[in-house]
Amino acid sequence: MLRDGWEVRSNLRASHHELVGLIGEEAYDFVGFSVSVERLLAPLVSAIKSVRKNSRNQSARVMVGGVVFIGHPEYVDQVNADAVIFDAREAVLVANDWYEPVKLNS
């Protein structure tokens, strides 16, 4: 993401409360989540709802990835994500496709 001109902020251990604070501080273009096991799908649904409700950028999109989505494309609709990605290169391509006009290295 950085090589393509995106500013990136990562917090692998943010609590739900911290997530709400982060997305309310800045107008992020998109938020990404990675999930490894099915038991985390319900908390992911809650987190995505919070992103959509509390984001400073009401046009922010949500991408999800992680092994839990491999072979289960229906989970994308269940969690209300805008896209599922399966590796970092794909994440960059999707982000660039969504926001080509606003990329920082334009």
User: If strands are numbered along the chain, what order do they take across the biggest sheet?
Assistant: 1-2-3
Tell me the overall shape: globular
Order of helices and strands: HEHEHEH
The major beta sheet can be summarized as: 3 strands, parallel
Low-confidence spans: pLDDT under 50, at least 5 residues? none
Total strands: the figure is 3
- Summed over residues and divided by their number, the pLDDT gives a mean of 88
Which percent bin holds the helix content?
Answer: 25-40%
Label the structural class. alpha/beta
Count of separate DSSP helical elements: 4
β content, as a range? 5-15%
Radius of gyration: 13 Å
State the end-to-end distance. 14 Å
Write the layout of secondary structure elements.
Blueprint lengths: L15 H10 L4 E5 L6 H14 L6 E5 L8 H6 L3 E3 L2 H12 L7
Parallel strand pairs: 1-2, 2-3
